[in-house]
Design brief:
The complex is a heterodimer. Chain A is an alpha/beta fold. Chain A folds into two domains: 145 residues, Periplasmic binding protein-like II (D-Maltodextrin-Binding Protein, domain 2, 3-Layer(aba) Sandwich), CATH 3.40.190; 97 residues, Periplasmic binding protein-like II (D-Maltodextrin-Binding Protein, domain 2, 3-Layer(aba) Sandwich). In chain A, strand 2 and strand 3 form a beta hairpin. In chain A, helix 3 crosses helix 9 and helix 3 packs antiparallel against helix 13. Chain B is α+β, with helices and mostly antiparallel strands. Chain B has a domain of 180 residues: MetI-like (MetI-like fold). In chain B, 67% of the residues lie in helices and 7% in strands. Chain B contains nine helices and eight strands. In chain B, the strands form three sheets. In chain B, strands 1-2-3-8 form a four-stranded antiparallel sheet. A two-stranded antiparallel sheet of chain B has the order 4-5. The longest helix of chain B has 39 residues. The chains are: A alpha/beta, B alpha+beta. At the A-B interface, helix 1, helix 4, helix 5, helix 6 and strand 10 of A face helix 1, helix 4 and helix 8 of B.
Chain lengths: 344, 329
Amino acid sequence: MKLSPLRCALLVLAGAAAGFAAPAAHAGKTLDAVRQHGRVVCGVSTGLPGFSAVDSKGNWVGLDTDVCRALAAAVLGDAGKVKWTPLNSQQRFTPLQAGEIDVLSRNTTWTLTRDASMGLHFAAVTYYDGQGFMVAKKSKVTNVKQLKGAEICVQSGTTTEKNLTDYFRAQGMKAKPVVFESYEASLKAFFSGRCQAYTTDVSSLAAIRDKEVKNPDDYAILPELISKEPLGPAVRRGDDEWFAIVKWVVYALIEAEELGVTQANAESLKRSANPAVQRLLGGAEDMGRLLGLDKEWAYRAIRAVGNYGEIFDRNLGANSPLKLPRGSNQLWTKGGLMYAPPIR
Amino acid sequence: MRRRFAEAGRRAFLWQALAVGLLLLGGWWVAGRVEGELAARGIRSGFGFLLQPAGFEIGESLFDFHAGLAYWQAFLVGFANTLRVALPGLLLATVLGALIGFARLSPNFLLRALGTAYVEVFRNVPLLLQLLTWYFLLTEKLPPVADAVEFLPGFFLSKSGLAFPLPAFAVAAGELAWPQRGLLNIEGGATVTPEYLAVLLGLAAYSAAYLAEIVRAGILSVSRGQVEAAAALGLTARQRMRWVVLPQALRLIVPPAGNQYLNLTKNSSLAVVVGYPDLVSVANTTLNQTGQAVECIAILIAVYLALSLATAALLALYNARLLRRGSAA
């Protein structure tokens, strides 16, 4: 019997249906997959200085990338075993939902909608940010109230647009957002004078002002913060073990700062008299076993990237070009919000 | 013999019905699976979100939109913005394309060369780059809004766009709402933003290059003998074009021109790169706020498909009329 074209088409269709019928392969346990492939796949930004950006030598650097390095060091014993996946703000959640990345560490704001309805969990807060405005100094604008009716450049795919609207509505003012798909285009438009103000998280504003303009003094960041932006790494839902690992790696870095453990002294502190330090570094008790890791998990993370304070200073604070103050990101013992549950 | 044909026909129909049925079944099943998968991963799905308040502003809108309105209304604003740039774009591209097409056939060397240069430049540079170029030309070269140029009374041009007087419906008939200098920007009247101008100019200029070639090909397809015959009858150049060349050329021009119109409408989705709040831009924002990627993309696909099919249907209608008129003559 010769096959008519129609029957061929039917066969193809049936084949395709059979293909779909095969159950979609789940990644299984993320930890197993990470160990099997020997790498942590980390979703980062396409380039935001201080958080995740490529330096002049082609390495990814920043606070968000250090979280991934610490994770790789804790899980795989080698901070270099990270595969970087740059994602723009609209793409970022889909690869995590689909299992293409293991962790999204990409200046992403923790909100209820994202946590509850997008198939992901935020593990911890690594940076307390807030949204602000940048204006050209020659516009003589010194506070947000003066931006009534102004055109404001903003990048799409962020919580920024909604905050902007909420704030202006609450103040009974109207703003005209000019929304760009790409970060670069939104900046270019602002610096060419298309908008009277640019808005995003203040940490980013500082990075932008430092990096994108010839004379940073021509631009001012307005004093008002109009939103809370807790940024932190997110993981896929449905894998509680991995969720716990990411969460506690971040907490270990914060705990290390509180206990005075640094990249340099971690080795000698292994034999510290302080039991909390010993537990953290795996000198006595094996806390890592509870997470499915070994007892030196936190020690390796700290050796790789330093404690939270060191990470902050290197990427955003005093030792970085951005020179951002610690502010809310100071330890709770020093009046900030950084607080890790006890490692015990 | 006839019976065998009838039977074959019935059998073919059966097969086709079966194929369509299977396809529908498959689609239904895939949709069900996607929904199940999303639910299993804790990702919200469904179109219920469309009724919730959008919570974001849209920079320019034909209707009075504010953040308290629902997502579906935001989509409507985006759709209207897409049409607002696509329809004038079609018109502008057609006029420009026809002019350049004629120029390329002109006996005047300079006109011909300019036409060729235009076509080659605009056809061979990616549209994305052209849009960005137009946009940055407009925003870099124009003065800031505080020093807007009033090149005609009531017409202000600046980085914030073109403000012009508009017949105000609210005011007594015949009166104009005049733009005036405000504190930070121009107030009153109507404004088109540089984003709108960039998309409009970019789309029109790009499509015009293709349309020019289609017009030229259509006109060249009419055999020289006919033009000469018409000339021998004493018809002037204009009459030859109007009564002999164009009626035949149009039959060849309309179908490929239709393709270009479809392209222009679809290309308007690139507007998002220069910050014009078209349908794609609104969908992007919605997608990010709600996280409902599948639904937002489905809406985009449905809308562009419907737009393209509608355009194609209109053009098919026009083409049929053209052919009928042609055969009747």
